[in-house]
């Protein structure tokens, strides 16, 4: 059940400033943290064991496709481990110095995941082009069996992350990694079957290049979104002008400046705003209700609204006016 608390504080009341702060934490990921920890532990363990086995079988079968896929899987194991560590670290208390805790670590892990996945795509392209122009004989049966096992391992672990992938880009990064690995394994299996019957080794490289295109397309959005969060961009699910229009409807509010909306980590949205009021007392009384609407309607879990009288010099001397 979501925890909700409301409070207001007027420590600057003598200077004509009123700070009203009301927030609750959304339960979607907090209630699933145990499941996510289990998914990360299982995902890292299964994929590490598989990529080691895949590398050995790749040498045995003389399959560069399996070796390249093993390298790709190993990069993903590193990415999963980073995401797992970020999940654990983001729950730590930051103490007196890091007042927001370490929630931003999950965003950083998502960004690193995206970079690693793109780098692994560069590896796959290089290996695929090399094999396309210089094909070598392949023991296709071990190739097919190993690829089918890879589909099962990666598909199962991707399924573990599917539920949380819509709410947290760190979890979505893990999901995309594993789903991409399953797709790569499928392509390798298909090429292995074709090679078994036709002995056309270059087909393996062609299928790999097509899969790389799919991986890059899915990863690019993840990388862009995580980069936007690192630079405190307004989240995609929030329309700044809609929020501004809502705040202007609070009784007594005349103007708004210094309005900011950003993500703290990958699943917690925050807002801070200064509002100029013709009736500070009236506006202050309506702030808790407005904060609740921001939480429920706009999914802003951590709103902070500062109320100022019209004759306040905050907008001129201490706060940068919002464009």
Task: Write a structural description.
This protein has ten helices and five strands; from the N terminus they run E-E-H-H-H-H-H-H-H-H-E-E-H-E-H. The protein has helices at residues 27-30, 33-61, 64-90, 104-133, 140-162, 169-198, 202-230, 240-248, 280-298, 314-318, and strands at 3-9, 18-25, 253-263, 269-277, 302-309. Helix 2 (33-61) packs antiparallel against helix 3 (64-90) and helix 4 runs parallel beside helix 6 (169-198). The longest helix is centred in the middle third of the chain and has 30 residues, at 104-133. The model is unreliable at 1-32 (pLDDT under 50).
Tags for this entry?
323 residues, five-stranded mixed β-sheet, disordered N terminus, 5 strands, alpha+beta, 13% strand, 10 helices
Gist of the model:
This protein is of the alpha+beta class and 323 residues long. The protein has ten helices and five strands.
Spell out the blueprint of helices and strands:
Elements: E1 3-9, E2 18-25, H1 27-30, H2 33-61, H3 64-90, H4 104-133, H5 140-162, H6 169-198, H7 202-230, H8 240-248, E3 253-263, E4 269-277, H9 280-298, E5 302-309, H10 314-318
Parallel strand pairs: 4-5
Antiparallel strand pairs: 1-2, 2-5, 3-4
């Amino acid at each position: 059940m979501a925890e909700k608390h409301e409070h207001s504080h007027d420590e600057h009341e003598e200077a004509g400033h009123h700070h009203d702060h009301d927030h609750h934490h959304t339960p979607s990921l907090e209630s699933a943290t145990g499941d996510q920890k289990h998914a990360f532990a299982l995902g890292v363990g299964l994929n590490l064991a598989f990529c080691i086995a895949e590398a050995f079988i790749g040498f045995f079968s003389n399959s560069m496709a399996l070796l390249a896929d093993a390298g790709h899987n190993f990069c993903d194991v590193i990415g999963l481990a980073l995401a797992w560590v970020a999940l654990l670290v983001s729950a730590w208390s930051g103490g007196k110095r890091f007042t927001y805790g370490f929630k931003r670590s999950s965003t950083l892990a998502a960004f690193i995941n995206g970079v690693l996945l793109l780098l692994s795509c560069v590896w796959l392209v290089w290996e695929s082009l090399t094999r396309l122009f210089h094909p070598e004989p392949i023991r296709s049966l071990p190739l097919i069996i190993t690829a089918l096992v890879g589909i099962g391992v990666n598909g199962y672990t991707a399924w573990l992350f599917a539920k949380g992938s819509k709410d947290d880009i760190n979890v979505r990064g893990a999901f995309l990694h594993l789903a991409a690995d399953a797709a790569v394994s499928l392509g390798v299996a298909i090429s292995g079957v074709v090679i078994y019957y036709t002995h056309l080794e270059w087909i393996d490289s062609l299928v790999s290049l097509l899969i790389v295109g799919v991986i890059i397309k899915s990863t690019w959005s993840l990388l862009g979104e995580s980069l936007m969060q690192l630079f405190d961009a307004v989240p995609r699910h929030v329309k700044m002008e809609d929020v501004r229009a809502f705040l202007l409807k609070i009784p007594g509010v005349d103007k708004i400046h210094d309005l900011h909306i950003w993500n703290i980590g990958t699943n917690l949205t925050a807002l801070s705003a200064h509002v100029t009021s013709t009736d500070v007392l009236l506006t202050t009384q309506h702030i808790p209700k407005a904060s609740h609407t921001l939480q429920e309607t706009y999914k802003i879990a951590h709103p902070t609204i500062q109320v100022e009288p019209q004759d306040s010099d905050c907008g001129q001397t201490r706060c940068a006016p919002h464009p």
